[in-house]
Amino acid sequence: xxxxxxxxxxxxxxxxxxxxxxxxxxxxxxxxxxxxxxxxxxxxxxxxxxxxxxxxxxxxxxxxxxxxxxxxxxxxxxxxxxxxxxxxxxxxxxxxxxxxxxxxxxxxxxxxxxxxxxxxxxxxxxxxxxxxxxxxxxxxxxxxxxxxxxxxxxxxxxxxxxxxxxxxxxxxxxxxxxxxxxxxxxxxxxxxxxxxxxxxxxxxxxxxxxxxxxxxxxxxx
Amino acid sequence: xxxxxxxxxxxxxxxxxxxxxxxxxxxxxxxxxxxxxxxxxxxxxxxxxxxxxxxxxxxxxxxxxxxxxxxxxxxxxxxxxxxxxxxxxxxxxxxxxxxxxxxxxxxxxxxxxxxxxxxxxxxxxxxxxxxxxxxxxxxxxxxxxxxxxxxxxxxxxxxxxxxxxxxxxxxxxxxxxxxxxxxxxxxxxxxxxxxxxxxxxxxxxxxxxxxxxxxxxxxxxxxxxxxxxxxxx
Amino acid sequence: xxxxxxxxxxxxxxxxxxxxxxxxxxxxxxxxxxxxxxxxxxxxxxxxxxxxxxxxxxxxxxxxxxxxxxxxxxxxxxxxxxxxxxxxxxxxxxxxxxxxxxxxxxxxxxxxxxxxxxxxxxxxxxxxxxxxxxxxxxxxxxxxxxxxxxxxxxxxxxxxxxxxxxxxxxxxxxxxxxxxxxxxxxxxxxxxxxxxxxxxxxxxxxxxxxxxxxxxxxxxxxxxxxxxxxxxxxxxxxxxxxxxxxxxxxxxxxxxxxxxxxxxxxxxxxxxxxxxxxxxxxxxxxxxxxxxxxxxxxxxxxxxxxxxxxxxxxxxxxxxxxxxxxxxxxxxxxxxxxxxxxxxxxxxxxxxxxxxxxxxxxx
Amino acid sequence: xxxxxxxxxxxxxxxxxxxxxxxxxxxxxxxxxxxxxxxxxxxxxxxxxxxxxxxxxxxxxxxxxxxxxxxxxxxxxxxxxxxxxxxxxxxxxxxxxxxxxxxxxxxxxxxxxxxxxxxxxxxxxxxxxxxxxxxxxxxxxxxxxxxxxxxxxxxxxxxxxxxxxxxxxxxxxxxxxxxxxxxxxxxxxxxxxxxxxxxxxxxxxxxxxxxxxxxxxxxxxxxxxxxxxxxxxxxxxxxxxxxxxxxxxxxxxxxxxxxxxxxxxxxxxxxxxxxxxxxxxxxxxxxxxxxxxxxxxxxxxxxxxxxxxxxxxxxxxxxxxxxxxxxxxxxxxxxxxxxxxxxxxxxxxxxxxxxxxxxxxxxxxxxxxxxxxxxxxxxxxxxxxxxxxxxxxxxxxxxxxxxxxxxxxxxxxxxxxxxxxxxxxxxxxxxxxxxxxxxxxxxxxxxxxxxxxxxxxxxxxxxxxxxxxxxxxxxxxxxxxxxxxxxxxxxx
Amino acid sequence: xxxxxxxxxxxxxxxxxxxxxxxxxxxxxxxxxxxxxxxxxxxxxxxxxxxxxxxxxxxxxxxxxxxxxxxxxxxxxxxxxxxxxxxxxxxxxxxxxxxxxxxxxxxxxxxxxxxxxxxxxxxxxxxxxxxxxxxxxxxxxxxxxxxxxxxxxxxxxxxxxxxxxxxxxxxxxxxxxxxxxxxxxxxxxx
Amino acid sequence: xxxxxxxxxxxxxxxxxxxxxxxxxxxxxxxxxxxxxxxxxxxxxxxxxxxxxxxxxxxxxxxxxxxxxxxxxxxxxxxxxxxxxxxxxxxxxxxxxxxxxxxxxxxxxxxxxxxxxxxxxxxxxxxxxxxxxxxxxxxxxxxxxxxxxxxxxxxxxxxxxxxxxxxxxxxxxx
Lengths: 221, 233, 363, 492, 190, 174
Ligand SMILES: Cc1cc2nc3c(=O)[nH]c(=O)nc-3n(C[C@H](O)[C@H](O)[C@H](O)COP(=O)(O)O)c2cc1C
Ligand SMILES: Cc1cc2nc3c(=O)[nH]c(=O)nc-3n(C[C@H](O)[C@H](O)[C@H](O)COP(=O)(O)O)c2cc1C
Ligand SMILES: Cc1cc2nc3c(=O)[nH]c(=O)nc-3n(C[C@H](O)[C@H](O)[C@H](O)COP(=O)(O)O)c2cc1C
Ligand SMILES: Cc1cc2nc3c(=O)[nH]c(=O)nc-3n(C[C@H](O)[C@H](O)[C@H](O)CO)c2cc1C
Ligand code: SF4
Ligand code: SF4
Ligand code: SF4
Ligand code: SF4
Ligand code: FES
Prior knowledge:
The structure holds six protein chains of six kinds. By secondary structure, chain C is mostly helical. Chain C has one domain. Chain C is 58% helix and 1% strand. A two-stranded antiparallel sheet of chain C has the order 1-2. In chain C, helix 1 crosses helix 6. In chain D, helix 1 (127-136) crosses helix 4. Chain D contains 15 helices and 16 strands. Chain D is globular, with a radius of gyration of 26 Å. The longest helix of chain D has 49 residues, at 427-475. By secondary structure, chain D is an alpha/beta fold. Helix content of chain F is 37%, strand content 8%. In chain F, the strands form two sheets. Chain F has a two-stranded antiparallel sheet with strand order 1-4. Chain F has a two-stranded antiparallel sheet with strand order 2-3. In chain F, helix 2 (32-40) crosses helix 3 (54-63). The radius of gyration of chain F is 26 Å and the shape is elongated. The N and C termini of chain F lie far apart (70 Å). In chain F, 36% of the residues are buried. Classes of the chains: A alpha+beta, B mainly alpha, C mainly alpha, D alpha/beta, E mainly alpha, F mainly alpha. Chains in contact: A-B, A-C, A-E, A-F, B-C, B-E, B-F, C-D, C-E, C-F, D-E, D-F, E-F. At the C-D interface, helix 1 of C face strand 15, helix 9, helix 10, helix 13 and helix 14 of D. The structure holds flavin mononucleotide (3 copies), riboflavin, iron/sulfur cluster (SF4) (4 copies) and FE2/S2 (inorganic) cluster (FES). Residues 372-378, 388-389, 420-423, 425, 427 of chain D line the site of one iron/sulfur cluster.
């Protein structure tokens, strides 16, 4: 159809329409081909990225469920402006811990990190996923650049007091980076609020669970 | 783009000279600036982007040259754009699937190769008027020309900004690129400016200034040589 | 003796007042001298070293650039490079290391000025450009402020220690550095602390005005800077429009928000007495080259400087915003100049002839 | 938003007046007669006048030697008696150094007046008649504009003139010719003023004098005492107060609209020198053959005002002032602000010559220009509210449209901007250049239009001829074609 | 308030040209004269707003429901290109004056990364329809402001005696860099 | 999946049709700018530009093969108008040829009227066998008269500088 070479045909509307339509047709076929060839790989990559990240903060040996599948978005305006993603880990049916995907405000924009806690509320690890802080200055929050981020390991609400949850400049426990205090401050306070959130959430969960269990027992009995 | 109106394909040496130096996409035509400046925080990124652009250029120039006979002016732009967009989507998919790390760094800018003015510029100015082989050669020359500028700017900014060159090349491009990685200035905390947006503009500005100096020097030399020729005769 | 050899055939006027570029620049330098000397007294020998190295770097770069462009090197005599270096030094941390100083002087003159063709051609204020570029490039060094250590006092570093600090052979001793008022306020605001509390405990307005505070040479004694500025005004080196507009707009904006919240916002008087506002208003925003030429344009320019400065101070990421504000308004200057031309004699503001033709024709 | 009220006066500069060199010395009137007198045919705004004498003719003092060459031109009279020895190009008293045709009269030493008419009281004559006599006397504006006075008066009659301003401000440094004239001949000036008022029927008359000339003010006040309606008023000393536009603003508070003339707002301005010349012409029938010239400057041994015959070589009036004590850095005709360098010391004094200045290097204070530092002093100094720095920058790259945008059109070339420029940029020269180029362009545009029209006309004609030829051929009349052609050429 | 914040952030803080590096070719190409820059700014505002709207509709009414997101780039750019070309044809015919001032820039805009970039960013940031529009207009305004400021600067630089090596493009680029440096003053403001 | 093809193809067809339609409905006649340029040119068809006449020159200028300053009779004024119209950078052009004026040497002129007939602007006056003269106001310097003059008495020179057209030159520095 698109091979008519007679110039008079070319000025006809049908020709224009057919040309662009045909082009679209061909190209969409091509893309469908491309998509079929790659989409599985891509999906896998995306999943792997997430798992890899999770693995950094929570050893895979800790759980046997699929935290990503079990994840839920929770809005907790008391602690965080943006909704946070909660990825619960279970071993068998036992609650083993949780990973939180949290976004706070950094110096240069949103700062997105993931933190994981064991069932006892002790931090297993924290990793920054994406941020817009100044490279070379505040990017020491990345593990690649500095191991500052590991200073949270093992901390909990129990072993570190409210006052200690701050950068040294503010009389707290954690180092700041010279010349860029705002970023560490944001991370420290984010992690702290994450712990608080966890505490609340965990309590709700267990009360919900216990009431559910109680209910189940009730109905069972 | 004066060659746009010449019906006869220029010689291959002209094509390459133009692409690599004289009429370089980035330095002569001032096109494709967005990716050029956005992703060149390191030489590695520049190389990745350059290769992606080269691939797209090659494919689109070829395809457009093939279909140039049947396109009419009324729908020319949309048709070319559809073609370019498809090719870019394919490349995007491919990089995402097979060079995922690089994809994460280049991000949005792969999709934006569609509107990279350089691609459309070449298609319009060259491929839509020339047979396949010169079109391919042109794409190749322009692509390589674009890539080297990307790498050069990336290198300038990376060295000044962090003292390294081709850092993370193995991570982004594959293990076989490990040999590229090097530290140029050890223990250098870097001039932040150069990897921030202002540094990008200024790096390109200085690169073009350097190109000018070289051109001028070459011309002076040529003239001197010509003069010398006169003297002996 | 025939002047025709020097200045060729030339149209009228054949008379000229005594002004010259060199004279103007030196007048500005003179106006800066008291504040500078006071700064040396407060910050001691390292400050002197910083100052000298920046000025020398600026002058040397100027000479180099002139030579590269094939212009007469004697042009450095116009003292504009000295002034640029001087103002730059006034705005840098007083104990800057040598490489920072040399880099600053070089950047200001080479990139800020000579890329555009030298004196009078640049579009941005060279000194502020260099300061901001360095702030972005080396935020740590550019925000290292030392407490005052007046010459002769015990804590003042001796010659060798000063050289050591300047050449970065030894670090600045612990406890010598701290945050400026604006820096602390910014930190307080970002950390959710109370500004009112901070101000009440740590900072005194009178001290800031007289100069007993930390900061750059040019932001310590607002009083001496103000005196120098007024002297320039009196000598008609600068006009009142920019300084007044800038100070008034800062005062108004800061006052407005201070009324909204004492907790969150700093009092306008602190805004006026810290962070080199006086230096900015009288010496930096008034740079001829980069500010508008009409009176109305100058008013808008000054007000804009004040407003942008306040916005960045109050909500932006940088505590010391004079440089950014001035540069931002520099960028707008060509537009201001184009739009706000003075009203020409016999024309209205749009450039059309006025219509006051009243004489009716007799017959 | 910032619409400021129209201010009394704006801009302007205060150059050192240097008037003390000559202000206290009375006018030298009895200069030795020059041997030769050179009368360029173009001493006024407008077209050249046409010679009425031939080489070899004998002329008497005051005799008409060249007649006005059109509606905008002026008559020229012999300043002394003698013989016309040449009508030839001489080096014009003009910075270009180009030649200009002049009538050269060799003085016979007698200085013999022609017979002057006896006149009735001019105030009893009709204004039109008086205007005719002013024209006859060859009077042009003596304040520098050299605009034919009669034309101005006649134009003024077509408007309702509320205010006649006599311009005695003399704002140019060095010059004191008006000052001395006002001091020494106040009566005559008042008399002339009354005549002008009579001609244009003005409601009020204001003699405006800068407040640095108290003696002149006093003299005129005294002379004007008997005549109501003539007010002698001081205006602030500020250059260019003498410019008509600025003076009108200072005196009446009104601005002359751009592109309009002072007549349009009911004002007429005349210089005191012009007034004196009009007095001479109407009272005594004397044409304009001499004028007061300030001879001053650091290189002049004994600076004085002199009453010089028009056409006297500059060399001779300098000699009358003791000669030079140094080679001048600049030799000027007019004041230092708006005057012009003259190519030769032998150039003649013309009707518009207010002064002859021989300035030292220190006085001129010229420097090699450096780039503009945008200090905007020129903007502040400009009495017209223009933006000289931008005008110059755009003129420099020949972007005249933008130069116009910033005010080139309205520039009066007063030089205030260049006077204050710390970078010593020859701003006025940029404007002179730009104005000249624009004029050239306008000319070439109109020439282009003109030739286009000519071409079209010719083409039409050729067509017509062709058609005619064809018709003629058809009619088989052989001779006609030639005839038609010669007719055509005769027509054109 | 959130919309306001988003707007300010897009205009000043994350300026599309100076920080996000989109639309640089027109910035360099069409800024040597103020009126052209102004026209380009207006035309871009029009197209950007339109494309933000169109792309949101396509994404949410076509691509997502049909699960064919991989056609995103293709369909976005197709629609943008067609709309732009159509507009241009209409403007050229109906208002030659408008065409002279705006229309000539329209074809240029199709290949301006900012347009597709904004559309894609809208999707990536998961903006709502209103947010998309705010973002689109904010970006456009940011683009126009920079365009006009830059044109003003370039007009002045054109009159300066820039050394030969830097005259023209290099000094323009460096100025753009310095302008971007100045805009960094707004960072941290969000 | 193939719904994708369908959607896109439909979209393509629709848009293609729309654009084709737009091109037709909103068609504008070709290049009015050549006419505009031609209207600006002096129209004396003198050929000094190297083209066989003004319309050819106009076409070449619009195409970009002729410099906008190639027409000497038009002078700077025309050059600038054209440069603005065609968006050409004036600085990139070399020096324009200077407009010339013809002068007839009256000691040699025999009054043959050949020049009179050749002049496209009727700039030459004089009847048969009388000395001819050039009205400089009307002469475009096309040299046609010079070419036909059998006595070789016509010369072309740039317009002389006089007191009337002299003006200050552009200052050197700053
Ligand atoms: C170019 C530049 C980038 C900056 N980036 C960051 C950043 O990413 N994170 C941060 O916390 N502060 C950043 N800052 C902010 C300042 O350094 C700020 O003054 C500092 O955070 C205040 O903390 P201090 O008490 O350590 O001086 C940056 C400053 C500059 C000049
Ligand atoms: C065609 C023409 C007509 C003029 N008519 C008058 C006139 O009617 N009245 C007048 O005062 N000046 C007239 N002028 C002269 C100028 O306006 C003259 O310069 C004026 O007196 C202002 O003096 P100035 O040169 O000091 O500004 C005329 C000028 C021209 C070119
Ligand atoms: C800048 C400038 C300064 C002038 N200064 C004087 C002056 O001092 N005295 C004067 O009589 N005319 C001066 N004139 C000329 C007047 O504007 C005006 O032409 C003159 O007064 C009209 O009178 P006239 O036609 O009798 O000469 C000056 C003109 C200009 C443009
Ligand atoms: C009142 C005044 C203020 C000045 N301010 C500055 C300034 O802030 N920064 C600077 O680099 N130069 C300044 N200069 C010097 C000079 O204008 C500067 O070197 C030019 O910008 C160079 O083109 C100033 C000059 C004067 C007269
Ligand atoms: S006075 Fe001179 S240096 Fe100052 S702005 Fe005007 S032209 Fe420029
Ligand atoms: S010469 Fe022209 S621009 Fe300069 S001050 Fe006088 S009127 Fe203004
Ligand atoms: S030179 Fe000018 S007037 Fe002569 S033919 Fe060419 S375009 Fe026409
Ligand atoms: S050169 Fe000769 S033919 Fe041409 S216009 Fe002049 S006079 Fe006429
Ligand atoms: S590459 Fe972005 S606009 Fe050209």
